[in-house]
Specification:
Blueprint lengths: L2 E6 L3 H12 L4 E7 L2 H11 L3 E5 L4 H13 L5 E6 L4 H10 L3 E4 L4 H12 L4 E3 L19 H11 L4 H8 L3 H15 L3 H12 L3 E3 L4
Parallel strand pairs: 1-2, 1-3, 3-4, 4-5, 5-6, 6-7
Helix pairs in contact: 3-4, 6-8, 6-9, 7-8
Length: 212
């Protein structure tokens, strides 16, 4: 059975190119496309596609709000966010909002197609350059974390701040800082951003590894 795809992009030429790429393969079909968020939202409501491919150029916060709304409504729609300009911090926020795929428009055609297929099958995908961790040093990893430290690490991965983590776990913000210090020492990761990225890797986000 073909997996349906809805494309929402600011550029008609990008929509045409992706439609052409998908049309060459039997396992996917483009059910609809739009050049505005409002029109895209209407298509998603009416067509309930397997995959939504949406342009990051619409704005990071509107995209995250839309992705969060799709999740809160219980729709079984996987989202791929793609864009010409994407950095690591933006990719992380997009994933924390609930997207299953993040890929650059400059990725090879085969990688773009594989990203959509992977997400359509229930998997996850992210460019390898967006999972790069320059601040990592050697350490024993997460296996040595206590149960509470694992809880703190998971909430950091979700994008929560120290006060929010403290409120969620019923502890003081100062205690959260102590847990984070221990987590960084044990995992060999420096900073909240590196910790969140390492968590994505452990959760199976599949990186694109084919770049020219």
């Amino acid at each position: 059975m073909k997996k349906t795809v809805v494309i929402c992009d600011t550029q008609p030429v990008a929509i045409h190119g992706l439609c052409t790429l998908i049309s060459e393969h039997q396992d996917l079909v483009v059910a609809g496309d739009a050049t505005s968020l409002l029109a895209g939202m209407e298509l998603v409501r009416n067509l309930n596609p397997a995959v939504l491919v949406v342009d990051k150029a619409f704005g990071l916060q509107p995209l995250m709000d839309w992705i969060g709304n799709i999740r809160s409504n219980g729709r079984l729609i996987s989202t791929v966010v793609w864009g010409v300009s994407l950095n690591e911090a933006e990719a992380l926020r997009i994933v924390q909002a609930g997207a299953q795929g993040v890929v650059r428009k400059t990725a090879p055609l085969g990688s773009l197609l594989e990203c959509i297929r992977k997400v359509a099958a229930g998997g996850t995908w992210m460019d390898d350059v967006l999972l790069h961790q320059p601040d990592r040093v050697s350490g024993p990893g997460r296996a040595s974390l206590t149960f509470r430290e694992q809880q703190v690490a998971e909430l950091v991965e979700q994008g929560l701040k120290n006060k929010e983590i403290a409120r969620s776990l019923g502890i003081c913000p100062g205690t959260v800082k102590i847990h984070l210090k221990h987590i960084f020492e044990k995992t060999g990761v420096r900073g909240r951003y590196g910790l969140a990225l390492s968590g994505l890797k452990e959760k199976g986000y599949t990186p694109v590894s084919q770049y020219n």
